[in-house]
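User: Assemble these into one structure.

Assistant: Restating your components, then the assembled model:
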Amino acid sequence: MRVFGRLSQEQIVFGLAVLLCLGFALALPGFLTAQNILNLVRSVSILGILGVAMGLVVIGRGIDLSLVALMAISVAWTLQLATNGMPMGLALALGLAFSLAVGLLNGFLVAYVEIPAIFATLAMGIAVYGFGRYVMFSLDVVYLPQDAEAFRWLGQGRLLGVPTPICMFALVSFLAFLFLRYTHQGRYLRTVGDNLAAARISGVPARPVILMQYMIAATIGFVGGCVTAASVASMNTRVANSTMIYDVILVVVLGGIGLSGGKGGIRNVIVGTLLIGVLLNGMTIMDIQYTVQNVIKGVILLTAIVIDTMLNPRDEQTAQQGDI
Amino acid sequence: MALTETYLRWRYRLVPDHLAGEILSKRWIDNTIPLFILLLVVAAFSTAMPEFFNAASVGDLSRQWGEFALLVLALMIVMLAGGIDLSVGSTFALGNIVALALISVAGWPMWAVVLGTLACGAAVGLVNGVLVGYLRLRAFLTTLVTLIIVRAIVDMLLLKYSVAIAGGFIDSDAWYYPGEGYLLGMPFSVVVAGVLAIVIHLVFSRSRAGWHVLAVGGSRRSAHNVGIPVKRVICSTYVISGIMAALAGLLFASRLGGAGADTGIGLEVTALTAAVLGGNSLGGGRGSAAKAIIGSVTVMIMVNGLVRIGVSAGANSLLLGLVLLAAVAIDVRWLKNRHKLLSKVYVSPTFMDLPAAPETDEGSIYAVNDKLHPVEKIGLDAIDGPEDVILDEDDNIYAGNRTGDIIRFFAPDYTRQEVYAHTGGRPLGMAFDRAGNLLVCIGGMGLYRITKAREVERLTDETNRSWLSVIDDSRLRLADDLDIAPDGRVFFSEATVRYEMHEWPVDCLESRGNGRIICYDPNKGKTHTVLKNLVFPNGICMSHDGQSFFFAETWGCRVSRYYFDGPKAGTVEVVIPDLPGYPDNINRASDGTYWLAIVGMRTPSLDLAMRMPGFRRRMARRIAPDEWLYANINTGCVVRFDETGRVLETLWDKGGENHPMITSMREHKGHLYIGGINNNRIGRLKLDWADPDWTGSQSYWRRS
């Protein structure tokens, strides 16, 4: 028990993922083949990219529930513009600009208007989805134009034999790691998440840092959306109403990034993503019904939150009224 | 100049500036913004669609509203305790499918269906409650996850039973009644929601259980510290929320009878929007059934109106998101800034034209002298703030202190002291009644009696509420000084109804008639207000005729006489209109005259400021309270006057060494005992001319 007690949540989750892998490998034929493993990682790489975005926000003691909606709408708009005849580069730039604008608005609402992040982004997600459906395009699903070969490569190509979504996941994770470890802004982000008041007193520009964290999340979300759209050659905006955002939170919390902020890093996101990948892949191979999978995911997420609460009890000194 | 002053006088007499702050300090002010939004929405839709509010449409809408209001009320209860329940939408869907499955597949009787459905809701609520309340998980994420899990369970149930439900015919009138029947001419669901709203309102405003919930939401840690079972309270709010959501689902099932895959999807966000739009605070402690009702009506009209107009689903979602954002933003900013706004607006000075102050130079009766210099210091550094002093038949001294005790100094040398009684408030004026009990005005509490057995008894702490005042003036905030008429009636002053004890100097900035004199009749046990609109009434002293009393108005710098009996009953006469300072307590002297304490002297600058209410208001708004211009209460004197108001002598401590600050004085057996509200001593001065056997008690109770 002593050895077990010293393990961090990240190590526990990693161990659990390895155990699950072993179990599936023994019980399920065809699980431990190179092809399946690549498929496994590829299937969760988009979740992983979004997990990195969410992880950065959570480290800064925020949460971004508008991530998936914003991703869907901005990428769908890009595709719509491209379909209408705009050059792909310009369409991408406009989509990114829209993402950044919404990210900025999120940050403004959280940092300056002081709305709890959870509500600001929840409402923003709904509003962005409605805005997209009402103003930007009228169909649920927007398809990729036929001639966008370079864009398509982003989701369906291979780099040195590895599918590009996995490469994109690796690239985003690496950049985020460098940002968090080696830049002033990255350290500010962690400081603000650890203790907002102390960061502010010691001269960290706390509010601009919060703006930045939501804008970074929006950017990474846009990248994730592009990879999604490229893989399936379309963007289904209904994903905004699905439970995908909770999967993203699941990845982050499961990996061991405490929701109270300031703790964890990119490695936690990767570990969390792997566990979810193994789990989903195994359940799919076992042919478990979709609704049952949802229940199992929900129970695991609940367990993860319980363990998170026990390992990182909320600090009553720095917790705010209305921080629910 | 004179014209300007006349204008100012009338402007401040006619325009009730102080009402702005008083209205803002009411709790119901929170409801005005949501109510305004509701009226706006109704106006907008009734102009856009005149047929929207006709009888048939309203009847249909109100039945839906009944179900929706139940959800919003459920969410409101959880929010009030500082949590949030996002699983209401899923629980609603669960209630729907369970009720349908029980009645048409299992074939249970109606009462069992109702119980079974509610039990399902309670079970979901219990899971939430245990996780959030006992395990202290974050409410938002936890209920998000239960939302997903319950939704998945509903989907599983749908796969299994939807065909059977769609195929079966329900042969039960009782089943259709909740969804289609009318009670008292209103749809059943509206009656249920209305009755529950009233019950919830009563519970939260009048019952212990409701107050516990409010306390937990207001401050979890303080609630824990005062012994409220925080975990159990939080858990129970989720259970109640689950039950109400399931009830709404049951009503929905009875109305439509269909199990669709999209039942209740997104309903939690709509309900949350309604709850926040109504003014229920995120984070708890502030909310009510009325707010939930206002919010639910607004959102219901908005959502249905848009559907009726025929905009796409996207526009609906866009509007909902924006309204939620705006509502939360207003809520957050209002909560943060309300007290700032209140503190800026509450202090509301008025025009006060004091008569010219008499000189205190050589030749004036108020001339500064050194007669108080020889006072002996009793209890030096052993008493903190004796506002009033009084002596009993055995010459012991009683004085209140800042920490709420009545201290007794023992005769003859007054070196020993004890705590005679602990009151808990701020003991101010005192008097002995005929039986020898000590009556005390306690700031923040009211009029109390301390019996000879040292028991502290409340005589009164409220009076009749005036009909037209905005703030509730029935409670006594600052009972100040009292005196007792020969028939036992107690007349006491309440200095101000607008400020608490610790803010009493701020009342000077206003100099409005905020004070009053109240009579407590022990024979009838009744309390009523005798004189209103007095400018900080302070000292009260029965005149020797037993038909009238003198009272001092501190910021008015005058002493008046009120006749409560006899031929002049009910009239007020000003006795001394122009004092050089701010009068405090009045007491009898042995030769038939009266002592008057002057707590501080007037200054030309403050007198001028009193005629410039705009200046004082700007001061109160723009600079910190520490920097405000206050009345001087550091140096005062004792004045002796007779019944006609003629001032006979003045006692000063010129060097300010022994007893500069004076709020009261009491003559007893040839000595004058002096108290001061900020002093660390009681003064004792030998009076050469005074009757060495005269005592206050004799003067009041033995003469007749």
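The mean pLDDT of chain A is 85.
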